[in-house]
Amino acid sequence: KDDEPDPIELKEKLNKNLPADIKIKDLTRTTEELRIINDPKEKEYHYYFCNDSQASPMIAPYMCNFLEDLDMEVMQKAAKTFEGSHNFKNYCYRGNENKIYERGVDFCEVKENDILTASFFPKKSYVFIVKGAGFMRHQVRLMVGAVVLAGSGQITLEQLAESLKGNEIDFKIFVAPSSGLQLFKMRFT
Fold it and tell me: Among 69, 86, 89, 176, which residue has the least CB neighbours within 10 Å?
């Protein structure tokens, strides 16, 4: 069509007007039926955190600082517990009887952060990485909360595994603060 914008010019205009933390890397024509929230084949979220009693307050917009003593080995095992198909009813904010809680997690890990860096970050920081077709509201932050509970010894790996069966649980999972969460990547094909 003659009235369609030039893709290069559109990309430049969008990047000029978008917030500094969002940039268009590529434009692809699609149909009106595309729904950015529901149609991705895979979403990848990162949650950045540290465990440092002397962490600078400047990190607050980028990562969360958990002050509890954390066992990273247990946290890595806890993250792997989420992989596969599970009932995430305990990891959903304001669920209802019509909600589909059976979800699949393709990949989940906790590792030392080498992705997001800054001179004012602590010497050691970590990233919780999760990939799957879709996540419910606050699901990733609740998953992080459960991993922190396991890492601090407040719940066992067995309790974590039991929480993925959709039954009532005897502990409270907290929603990790939003400051560490980043939608890192979406794949549509």
Answer: 69
